[in-house]
């Protein structure tokens, strides 16, 4: 059986040969520190870089216009909103928030795997092992970070919105709805990497649990399907 030789190779294998990666890392409990560091640090650096080159005056105006378009506001209310958009504050809240977002999402995902697999696949893996699993399963998202950085690099004039950093979202690729549209958030949230990560997670679950593809896919995809369907129903009937 082919195995990843080291943590760096395992990271590459999650992108190029995920079954090899997961067959390896289920026996290498101490290797998950590398995808954890690479994903959180690259996200942090991305946003630091973004705010160092973006035309912040333009960005601030864009964000205020989006808020004004989505909700009627008085001039005083708009000024109050504008006062919150300070460059230093946004740099650190976005960079730290983006990095911590990975941690929180992966912790919640690990709780889900820990509970569901005990019931459906008689899993004996502990929460900490599932938490490590989530970092391997989500590692291909680093390609998304690289693409976002390239968007900034090639923009040239510094006029890059936060939405532009998601070039593979359904909204960017297919729909191009404005930020004041009720479907904007959902269409931005669904992107090509959503499907890639589900596929990688399916392979990982099959490797770790020795279950068939259909069962692994259902466990991997169920949370996102539930979230996106609930979100769509909310927009249709409540928003």
Automatic annotation (TrEMBL):
InterPro entries: Yip1_dom. Keywords: Membrane, Transmembrane, Transmembrane helix. The keyword Ribosomal protein does not apply. It is found in: Membrane. Residues 13-232 form the Yip1 domain. It holds the Pfam family Yip1. The chain crosses the membrane at residues 33-51, 90-113, 133-155, 182-205, 217-237. It is a multi-pass membrane protein. One of its GO terms (cellular component) is membrane. This is YIP1 family protein.
